[in-house]
Amino acid sequence: MDAATIAAVFAATASSTKWIQTNLGKVAEVNHEGQTWTVLLPSMGTDEAGQPTPSKARITGHLGYGGTEFTDVEATWGQTIGVVEAAMAATRI
Fold this sequence. Notes:
Blueprint: H1 3-13, E1 20-22, E2 25-32, E3 35-40, E4 44-46, E5 52-54, E6 58-64, E7 67-74, H2 77-91
Antiparallel strand pairs: 1-2, 2-3, 3-6, 4-5, 6-7
Helix pairs in contact: 1-2
């Protein structure tokens, strides 16, 4: 997967208004170039000392012609902020 595709998928996710709760957390499914990409909303992780530490959004896979491919592509902090803001806006009451 090239950098332009990764950037486009995270940009599409940053404007997503639909989030689905899964056993791994909230995910958004966005379309890019005829494929459906799944992006996982980051959760709070912990460091070696057990202290809370933030994590980044991730592309976990895509579905298209030929089937499903599972991936693990980490967003930049800037992309993660956009993804988190979109999820917050979509789930705000």
